[in-house]
Design brief:
The chain has about 425 residues and is of the alpha+beta class. It contains ten helices and 21 strands. Helices cover about 25% and strands about 25% of the residues.
């Protein structure tokens, strides 16, 4: 506890510097970030902040992680496509899965000249700041917003966000299933028009969101899902996930925020945190959200199908646990004023990895029946009906199948988006 006689003395910047120079690592990190009392305070925007783009964060496995030290004194340029625009823009950086501070030197944003390359449009380049400073120290488990900037771009512009990382934290924070190419080079290249000799990687790291102020756009839509939502089966840099097609149908009138993770389950962690574990961060904490589409459960059913000892009681228990989890998601979203739309689970009978049997298909049908008839969801989006083979309803329509019996191809993703009634979001 600070002695009351010293309180006044400690309010001066010089006194704070003396206090923080006690030698701890935390003190050094604090020195890199201005004291809040001295930071510029922006006026509240007349129009509210809304999520324009986001990606779910996770700790990547060895196959999807960057080599150790790759982010030490390195610039990472990543291409993303927000689905709405606004007068002001800010980004959100994430160290959610880091166990030591993430030290950022500089960050810039520009329009991408070509979303399949590291080239930017130099005239659009803007430096971003954090509390008026060019960089930030993001503590373990934390996320950091940049200061707002005026941004004249439009919806569906490809944006290049360049992050100069001074020191890589222990534990990478990533979205492996980007279906977009990122570029990594040494040193501070945040102002470079292109990145020569950059390493290419089809993953996102550290960037968890872009937000804009908008009075014109409606409150947005988050899609909570697994690899089908994440875009497995879409084309790299093609922006042809089902959420991309849905966003283009909405034509910038509302954002569609893709919070899918490959292999994701509702109940248990897998390649990333479960839907229940990430609901607060990925959905409820997003600004300017009015709607949630839930398309999750196929991996819960499929993982049980891989258990040779699974009994009828196990399948019945899973159905009860899944529908109970959906009810929890709905209750928590409703408490935040968010409408929840239940999407039925797509067929997967021919998938070789899961090799579902009759009990697994009965479980899927039972879950879908609950989604359709329980009345707990605000509405139902019947993707099962839109995507199944008319001749064999337990199988994915061959016209929409990538070939694995589980993941749709781009034509299937378009059909999924077309199956959504836009009037749900009025």
């Amino acid at each position: 506890m600070i002695d009351p006689r010293r309180r006044t003395a400690l309010t001066s910047p010089a006194a704070w510097r003396r206090l923080m120079l006690g030698g701890s690592t935390l003190a050094l990190g604090l020195l890199a970030t201005p004291v809040l009392a001295n930071a510029p305070v922006a006026a509240s925007p007349a129009c509210p902040w809304k999520a324009a783009w986001a990606s779910s964060q996770m700790l990547p496995d060895a196959a999807n992680a960057l080599p150790g030290g790759a982010l030490d004194d390195a610039t990472l340029r990543q291409i993303v496509r927000p689905s709405i625009t606004g007068a002001q823009l800010r980004i959100r950086l994430s160290n959610v899965f880091g166990t030591t501070p993430l030290r950022i030197g500089r960050v810039s944003i520009a329009r991408s000249a070509d979303n399949a390359s590291a080239n930017i449009v130099p005239a659009t380049l803007k430096a971003l700041t954090f509390a008026g400073q060019p960089g930030a120290v993001i503590p373990p488990g934390g996320e950091w917003l940049s200061d707002p900037i005026a941004w004249p771009g439009g919806a569906f512009d490809d944006l290049a966000v360049s992050i100069h990382v001074l020191a890589e934290p222990e534990g990478q924070t990533s979205h492996p299933g980007s279906r977009a190419t990122s570029y990594l080079t040494s040193g501070d290249a945040t102002a470079a028009a292109t990145l020569t000799a950059a390493t290419r990687t089809d993953h996102w790291f550290l960037l968890s969101g872009i937000e804009v102020t908008s009075c014109a756009a409606r409150d947005g839509i988050v899609v909570l899902g697994d690899s089908i939502t994440d875009g497995r089966g879409s084309t790299t840099n093609g922006n042809d996930r089902w959420t991309d097609f849905l966003a283009r149908r909405l034509a910038g009138r509302a954002a569609v925020i893709n919070q899918g993770i490959g292999g994701n389950r509702v109940l248990l962690d897998g390649l990333g945190p479960s839907a229940m574990a990430r609901l607060d961060r990925d959905v409820l904490a997003q600004p300017g959200i009015r709607h949630l589409i839930v398309l999750e459960g196929i991996n819960d059913i499929g993982n049980l199908a891989r258990r040779p000892d699974a009994s009828a009681a196990d399948h019945a228990a899973l159905v009860a646990q899944l529908t109970g989890a959906y009810a929890q998601i709905i209750a928590r979203a409703h408490a935040k004023g968010i409408k929840v739309h239940g999407a039925t689970i797509l067929p997967f009978m021919s998938n070789e990895y899961y090799s579902p049997d009759a009990a697994s298909e009965a479980g899927r049908q039972a879950v879908n029946a609950w989604i359709r008839t329980s009345g707990v969801f605000d509405s139902v989006i019947d993707l099962d009906a839109a995507m199944r083979d008319p001749a064999r309803p337990a199988y994915l329509n061959p016209a929409f199948d990538t070939g694995d019996g589980l993941h749709p191809n781009p034509a299937g993703f378009r059909a999924m988006a077309d199956a959504v009634e836009l009037s749900l979001f009025d």
